[in-house]
Automatic annotation (TrEMBL):
Residue span(s) of domain HTH lysR-type: 4-61
Record's protein name: LysR family transcriptional regulator
GO molecular function annotations of the record: DNA-binding transcription factor activity; transcription cis-regulatory region binding
Domain of life from the UniProt record: Bacteria
PROSITE patterns in the cross-refs: HTH_LYSR (PS50931)
Source species of the chain: Amycolatopsis azurea DSM 43854
SUPFAM superfamilies: Periplasmic binding protein-like II, Winged helix' DNA-binding domain
Amino acid sequence: MTAPDLDSLRLLVLVDELGSIGQAAASLGIAQPSASKRLSTVERRLGLVLVDRTRRGSALTPDGRVIAGWASRVLSELDGLLDGAEALRTQHEAQLRVAASMTLAEYLVPGWIGELKRGDPGLYLGLEVTNSDQAAELAREGKVDLGFVESPGPLPGLSTRRVATDRLVLVVPVNHPWARKRRPVTAAELAITPLVVREPGSGTRETVDAALRKAGVGPAKPLLELGSASAVGNAVIAGAGPAVISELAIVRDVAESRLVPVAVEGVDFGRELRAVWPAGRRLAGPAAALLAIAVRNAKSR
């Protein structure tokens, strides 16, 4: 005996509930002849007469009503299975939720996640890539278990841990006058030069502005605002203007002579990259494991 398909069982249940093949077919959005053919197929597979067909119409036989009752329970159990699977999927999705700023997400976090997954292959992890302000806010609101940010300033409402150090570098295309400059660019020169910059809320943008303010020359003068370190680097290569971006983002372009790093005098572009999570909350499980991996890798750099 071959089991009927689920759509045919749904049709049979609807015939029982609505009292006619025509109404059941309309409810499922199929033509009545197609519905009749499906029911005939079910009858052949089960070896039972399920529908009493007369000139006045069609109705389920006593056997048909019994089978429809059983079919209704099968479909109900299937719905329970699907609901349960969705609940399990949601639970897996919530095992570890991470947000990371663009630079960290591009150059550091994937390696940390890879190491975590090697130790726990069944772990379901969701990573949201955004800027530092938004990553911090997601952590503050408890929408992620752990965030990674580049922001240099205080982060109220959050516990923090340094996971890496980074340095921002002034870069220009190979044909820029500064590429042949023998002495460092001064803080004042940099402050009056329009730069390709990250968007407001970016940790890189905040670090550049904070460093220039500390040097007494004010924030950067934006020429073009872009949403990622790679976009900034590509704009510089294309000749849009100089930029100050993470050294993590320029290694290949400098090695392949697409970008030239330029020394800057009197400005400290060093920074700490930090993990963040809600203040007062103790990290445990996968979140604590990921933080430990990040810290361990920072010590080895």
